[in-house]
Amino acid sequence: MSRINGFCGRRDFLKFASVVSIAATAFGDSCLNTKQTAIADIHAVNPNPVSPNEAIKRLLDGNQRFINQKPKYPDQSLEHLRLVAKAQYPFAAILGCADSRVPAEIVFDQGLGDLFVVRVAGNVVSDTVIGSLEYSTTVLGSQLIVVLGHRRCGAVAEAIKNEPLPGRIGLIIEGIKPSIERVKFRTSDNMQDIVIANIEYQREKLPESSTILAKLLHEGKLKIVGACYDIDTGKVNIIT
Predict the structure, then answer these.
(1) Among 204, 191, 203, which Cα is nearest to 158's?
(2) Can you give 156-189 as a three-state secondary structure string?
(3) What pLDDT score does 184 carry?
(4) 217: Cβ–Cβ under 8 A, 6 or more apart, which residues?
(5) CA 202/CA 210 separation, integer angstroms
(6) What ranges in 68-142 are assigned the alpha helix state H?
(7) If pLDDT is split at 50, 70 and 90, which confidence band does 26 have?
(8) Which candidate in 9, 72, 74, 226 could, as Cys together with 199 as Cys, close a disulfide (CB 3.0–4.6 Å)?
């Protein structure tokens, strides 16, 4: 695989994953395991790696600036735009809800190339989400993944209703329902409890569903945390 500024090229990475995926289809689970191992052995070369704890500090400091309405709008200059056009080094990956009121770069006061953001309603983990986060960690070198949920999440509210939904909306809701069961065991039906439970559930699901992320966690090269955004105040709280 070719490397650009120390990183495997995106096109080569995706081409490699595609070829191995086809082989896995032809030869079964044993080849799929080989695919997981092969990609897990890719080592990102980041000239300025950011530790998980430092990444969390940067995010919370930026959120505090956002709350205080004193943003710095970092890394948004034309010079920086041209710099990250050559290669990206995101210091954190965010799995967030697609809700229009929770744009990660704004609420964390970050700029171009700072965050690798994956957004889907209900911050629900899927194969596509996992693949994106595997890429951000193994190829781009992010050492922190934040599962970012938020108060009064519409997707969570629909899951609580447990009513038939049109199209493929139900697929997202099904991914949230296990969280409701967790809260039932706590003898509570508070929506915010379910929002938190869903964040925790999706956070745990990532390494359970990905040998790549599990391997990075085991090696101490990755941290996965949950966080909740308050849409009324703008504050982000780390919850796990």
Answers:
(1) 191
(2) HHHHHHCCCCCCCHHHHHHCCHHHHHHHHCCCCC
(3) 75
(4) 207, 223, 224
(5) 12
(6) 78-86, 104-107, 127-138
(7) very low
(8) 226
User: In degrees rounded to 5, what are phi and psi of residue 93?
Assistant: -115, 140
Helix pair 177-184, 191-209: axis angle to 10 deg:
120
Tokens matching residue 35: 């695919």
For residues 192 and 45, give the distance between their C-alpha atoms in angstroms, rounded to a whole number: 40
pTM flag (> 0.85): no
**Sign of the C-alpha dihedral, residues 117, 96, 52, 126?**
negative
**pLDDT at residue 24 tops 70:** no
- At 37 the pLDDT is 45
Give 129 or 22, the one with higher predicted confidence: 129
Q: Is the pLDDT of residue 191 over 50?
A: yes
Helix (H, G, I), strand (E, B) or coil at 140: coil
Going 220 to 221 to 225 to 229, the CA torsion angle's sign is positive
List Cα–Cα distances, 5 to 84, 116, 205, in angstroms: 11, 18, 32
Average pLDDT over residues 84-109: 97
Collapsed DSSP state (helix, strand, coil) of residue 152: coil
Environment class of 219 (CB within 10 Å of its CB; exposed 0-12, middle 13-18, buried 19+)? exposed
Amino acid at 229: Y
Closest CA to 170 of 124, 102, 117: 124
Closest listed residue to residue 106, CA positions, set 94, 123, 122, 89:
94
Amino acid at 116: F
Task: Report d(CA 202, CA 19) in Å as an integer.
Answer: 29
